[in-house]
Amino acid sequence: MRTMTVMIVLMLGILVLAGTVVLYVAYPHRGQEVPQLPWVGDALRRGVEALPTLDNQREREEASAGTR
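Structure (tokenized):
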């Protein structure tokens, strides 16, 4: 019984994460507002901008190398 509950909770978490990715790719990634929920698009954009990417890391490395 406990194992089944854990599996259901994990599957719901996976579905929420997948839905969030699909929502981001469908709207904010293309520069469009999320219909009916503009605050969700803003939150997704802020979250993505806060994550490190290879371009951001390269800029940081160049900036820190220039200050030495």
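The chain is about 75% helix and 0% strand. The chain has a mean pLDDT of 84.
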